[in-house]
Amino acid sequence: MAKVIYEKPKGITDAITHYCPGCTHGIIHGLVAESLEELGVLGESIGVAPVGCAVLAYNYFNCDMQEAAHGRAPAVATGIKRVLPDRTVFTYQGDGDLAAIGTAEIVHAAARGENITVIFVNNAIYGMTGGQMAPTTLLGQVTTTTPYGRKPEANGFPIRICEMLSTLEGAAYVARVSVHDINNIRKAKKAIKEAFQTQIDRKGFSIVEVLSTCPTNWGLTPAEAIKWLKNNMIPHYPLATFKSPWGVK
Amino acid sequence: MARILMKGNEALGEAAIKAGAKFYFGYPITPQNEVSAYMAERLPEVGGVFLQAESEVSAINMVYGAGGAGARVLITSSSPGISLMQEGISYIAGAEIPAVIVNVMRGGPGLGGIQPGQADYFQATRGGGHGDYFMVVLAPESIQEMVDIMQEAFDIADQYRNPVMILADGMMGQMMEAVDLDNVEKSDRNLPPKTWATTGMAHHQGKNIINSLELDPAKLEKHNLDLKKKYDEMAKNEVKYEMYKCDDADIIAVAYGTTARIVKNTIDMASREGIKMGLIRPISLWPFPQEPFDRTADRAKAYISVEMSMGQMVEDVRLAVNGRKPVHFYGRTGGMIPEPKDILAEIKNILGGVK
Amino acid sequence: MAARGNVIFDNERCKGCELCTTVCPVGIIEMSSRLNSRGYHFSQVKEGMMEKCIACGFCGMTCPDFVIKVERL
Fold first, then answer.
1. Is the ipTM of this complex over 0.90?
2. Residues B222, B259: one domain?
3. Which member of A73, A196, B319, C32 has the greatest number of CB atoms within 10 A?
4. Which residues of A touch C56 (CB under 8 A)?
5. Judging by DSSP bridges, how do beta strands B49-52 and B4-7 pair with one another?
6. Which tens digits make up the pLDDT trace of B41-85?
7. Which of C17, C59, C70 lies closest to A222 in CB terms?
8. Which residues of B make CB contacts under 8 Å with A?
9. What residues of chain A, 212 to 241, have a C-beta less than 8 Å from chain C?
10. How many domains, in total, are found in chain C?
11. Which residues on chain C are in Cβ contact (under 8 Å) with A16?
């Protein structure tokens, strides 16, 4: 009998997603779903979708979901977790949602050591609204609101969220990963599982920042976008585990 | 436990606990700070959770999550804080989440003051956030009534899966009155189980989603039509008011909350001077009571809305009177409290003009 | 004996992003000239090349739309 090596995770619904061709949101969705399944908590999970490209994520994760106002997912998740402390609660947010309008919510959820897991998808741009500058847009990067390239004197500097949050004692697990190749997809899966395990073990706040592509708004093919991420984003956003209950190499 | 002397803000917190609310999210703002302090002390004693958020914006979204997970949730703030919550309240209405929100009003606009006010009437009754939605808005005139109304508020919220707002003011929050917290009558509404709550798919049938997004305009319109049916039900069933000495009144004041008590004193003063004055006291500000105006419009010579604002409820009074009789307004604002002698002078002025 | 695999494509889900073609270690995945009902060229194993599949699962792991199921025979 053939052994299944890979198939659509049970934690993903049958819906065809609205994401653009080659957008790596889909890969990240799969890693989250697989992690919840393998940890045996899918039926105990409640996810909170953001506003942004992942706004329809509540149609794609096969668990109870809530749709939050822009930037407020960590607060919504806090409300859920405080009512249901034994459930697995996660947010799935983009860089506009988390690092711009929702900065206070993410900082304070981390500072509180809120026992939730945050999946933070960083693609250095606002995707859903058509390619505006995000807090994580790189210097020199052209977007619809930085048509001449992002300049520090006008638009400041891109924010490294993991480094910022890892200064907070309440943050128990902080890691930045990427999905631009198979090796890194495997590492991302490992980090996401460790983040959920941190929550299950009640050790405090966990976040995984996942570098992701935006072929449409970067104006690149999916394969070119993967290369662009590797050559441009990783130098500014180093991949690392910043904090972990199991120690950091 | 007999009647005890209790501060309004604290009685408000205890009333919510009596109503089964075990979760409270808040943020410091005068004049309602005592609610948080009280809940921070009391909720752990009843196995509940008190959480002070980083802002009212965050706090109302915690209410969204907690209410969406099936809990009875209380949140309180004061005018500027309630303004910060408007987006969240619109989402709570759109996603049909039960919650009780108390606005201990203060003088505005802007940072305003910290003394009592009633200038948030429009914001509360017209839906301060975006989109077509309404909330049952209840306005107690005493701390005991606030305690009783709190029980009803949570039942209304659960029955209709809708936020309910209680409008108090700085006076009610800060003053102390005798309160009986024991035999608080529970309503006998049969409330459906919260099968819609996001508690995890292992804990109920199917998949639950708490959401207010609908990109398909036809479906969003259908959602609004369904909400409208709900609001019509609320408008039909949830009207509450008091009529005080209206039977033979020549002039009828319309006032709510602590202002109504000041008007009752004025009525006693007036009667000593042979002036027949009555009071219509809306307890539900939304749905605004139409009936008391229909019952008095033939007899009364004029109405006067008395508010701690520049005149907001007066518009609902005009709508209710519908041109049958003149409608006047008297108000103090900024934290100034209307005084009986000034209200009476206004009454005399109006009646002097009306033969 | 090297592992042998079988790759199954749910063509309707494919959006023609071609990422699977870039990760196959034995280079047996190509885009079809045919279109699915949503107008995308869908991915497929080249004619007669299924036997070269080593069941690594990379194509499935990298597909953002869960088009691909990989089995080891």
1. yes
2. no
3. A73
4. 5
5. unpaired
6. 999 999 999 999 999 999 999 999 999 999 999 999 999 999 999
7. C17
8. 23, 25, 49, 51, 53-55, 57-59, 61-71, 73, 87-88, 91, 95, 198-203, 207-213
9. 215, 221-223, 226
10. 1
11. 12-13, 65
Domain A25-243 part of CATH 3.10.20.30: no
Same domain? B99 vs B189: yes
- Residues from chain A that touch B206, judged by Cβ atoms under 8 A, are none
Q: What averages of pLDDT result for each successive group of 10 residues across chain A (249 residues)? A: 94 98 98 98 98 97 98 98 98 98 98 98 97 98 98 98 98 98 98 98 98 98 98 98 94
Unique residue bearing structure tokens 């706004």: A55
pLDDT of residue B137: 98
Residue A201, Cβ density class (10 Å: 0-12 exposed, 13-18 middle, ≥19 buried): middle
Chains B and C touch (3+ CB pairs under 8 A): no
* CB–CB contact A27 C72 (8 Å): no
Q: Over the stretch A173-214, which tens digit does the pLDDT of each residue have?
A: 999 999 999 999 999 999 999 999 999 999 999 999 999 999
User: What is the radius of gyration, based on Cα positions, of chain A?
Assistant: 17
Asked if C19 lies within 8 A of A20 by C-beta distance, the reply is no
Is-contact B137 B165, C-beta < 8 A?
A: yes
Q: Which domain holds residue B254?
A: 241-353
> pLDDT confidence of B307, banded at 50, 70, 90?
very high
Beta-bridged to residue A126, according to DSSP, are A132
Alpha carbons C30 and C17: distance in angstroms, whole number: 11
Count of domains observed in chain B? 2
**Bridge partners, residue A91, by sequence:** A48, A118
Q: Which residues contact B205 (CB under 8 A, 6 or more apart)?
A: B195
Q: What is the CATH number of the domain that holds C28?
A: 3.30.70.3270
Q: Does C35 touch chain A (CB under 8 A)?
A: no
Which residues in chain A have their CB less than 8 angstroms from residue B55's CB?
104
Q: Name residues 121-150 of chain A within 8 A of B (Cβ).
A: none
Q: Whole-model pTM?
A: 0.97
Distance from CA of B110 to the nearest CA of A (A): 22
The residue of chain A with its CA nearest to that of C13 is: A16
Interface present between A and B (3 or more CB pairs within 8 Å): yes
Question: DSSP string spanning chain A?
Answer: -PEEEE---TTB-SPPP-SPTT-THHHHHHHHHHHHHHTT-GGGEEEEE-SSGGGGGGGTBSSEEEEPPTT-HHHHHHHHHHH-TTSEEEEEEEHIIIIIITHHHHHHHHHTT-S-EEEEEE-SSBTTTTSB--TTPPTT--BTTBTT---HHHH-----HHHHHTTSTTEEEEEEEE-SSHHHHHHHHHHHHHHHHHHHTT--EEEEEEE---HHHHTS-HHHHHHHIIIIIHHHS--EEEE-TT---
Is A1 touching C (CB cutoff 8 A)? no
Supply the range of the domain harboring residue C36. Answer: 5-72
A77 neighbourhood in chain B, CB within 8 Å: 65
The verdict on B273 and B170 lying in the same domain is no
